[in-house]
Amino acid sequence: MKKLIALIILLLTLPSTCFAFKTPDDKKRWIYLYKNDNESVYLDANNYQSFYGSYKDKAGRNHINHYIASTWLWRTEPNPYVDYQLERVVYDLSCNMYALTRVIKYDNNAKVVSDKYYTALGEEAVPGSRGEVEVEAVKMYERFKEVIRGELDRS
């Protein structure tokens, strides 16, 4: 009976540890952005920049004097070959667009699996998509970044 109870406890704890997301070690640098059933995303506060800028998107539209945010994201998702990935993303917070410019994927030993650059000039954050969730999360970070940084400095 003791063996059966021990086996049940072991089986109940396995799924939670086998599918747990890896999280960044430096909690002052990597700010929790959002999490869902498939992924966990953190924003790099050390490399976060926001400014007003202009650009032309891939559809040829001019975006003049828009509020832009640029940062790295740490993204984890259940994948047997990739432990986590770092993404360089530029967000146009004025019109809900984003551009993914680089993705570096790492294995369980923190070795680079792939490193790709992208030249996207702007993707629309489609309602209900992951892009929209990220744009809205970055807007919230932008709005409260001084408060967040103050809280992290005190801890």
Distance between the termini: 47 Å
Specify the helix fraction band: 25-40%
The top level CATH class name: Mainly Beta
Largest sheet composition: 8 strands, antiparallel
**So how many helices?**
2
**Radius of gyration over alpha carbons?**
19 Å
Mean pLDDT: 84
Query: What is the CATH topology descriptor?
Result: Lipocalin
- DSSP strand count: 8
Total domains: 1
Strand content: 35-45%
Shape: globular
- Specify the CATH architecture: Beta Barrel
Structural overview:
With 155 residues, the protein is α+β, with helices and mostly antiparallel strands. 27% of the residues lie in helices and 39% in strands. It is built from two helices and eight strands. Strands 1, 2, 3, 4, 5, 6, 7 and 8 form an eight-stranded antiparallel sheet that branches. A hairpin with a 4-residue loop joins β1 and β2.
Key features of this structure:
39% strand, 8-stranded antiparallel beta sheet, 155 residues, Lipocalin, alpha+beta, 8 strands
Structure summary:
This protein is α+β, with helices and mostly antiparallel strands and 155 residues long. Helix content is 27%, strand content 39%. It contains 2 helices and 8 strands, in the order αββββββββα.
Question: What is the fold's blueprint, element by element?
Answer:
Layout (H helix, E strand, L loop, with lengths): L1 H17 L11 E6 L4 E5 L4 E8 L5 E15 L7 E9 L4 E10 L5 E6 L5 E2 L5 H25 L1
